[in-house]
Design goal:
about 120 residues; mainly beta; six-stranded mixed sheet; four-stranded antiparallel sheet; 10 strands; about 50% strand; globular
């Protein structure tokens, strides 16, 4: 059974930083990986994606503050979040939206990020 497991969430003050990790149970080499988030009473939204070739895409709201990266040797995707704002508070999910392989379409269980003002 393929799995994506997020970690690194927590409570941080505005202006602080967190680094999220997403560990996959299988190879991510041929998989586009992404981070999504869902705030209370809001729809899940894209935060960032990274292709197999390393091309990155960000939501306008996080550009310049968040950085997505991947380590194919560790089957892990990261989200470095700097200059956090209260509006970044959400459950953050790892997802494999594209590519091919058994991880395709998988979602993690989510990790809570709370930013206090």
């Amino acid at each position: 059974q393929v799995q994506l497991v997020e970690s690194g969430g927590g409570l941080v003050q505005a202006g602080g930083s967190l680094r999220l990790s997403c560990a996959a149970s299988g190879s991510i080499f041929r998989v586009i990986m992404g981070w999504y988030r869902q705030a209370p009473e809001k729809q899940r939204e894209l935060v960032a994606t990274i292709t197999t070739g390393g091309s990155k895409n960000y939501a306008d709201s996080v550009k310049g503050r968040f950085t997505i990266s991947r380590d194919n040797t560790k089957n892990t995707v990261y989200l470095q979040m700097n200059s956090l704002k209260p509006e970044d508070t959400a459950v953050y999910y790892c997802h494999a939206p594209g590519g091919w392989g058994p991880l395709l379409g998988s979602w993690g269980q989510g990790t809570q990020v709370t930013v206090s003002s």
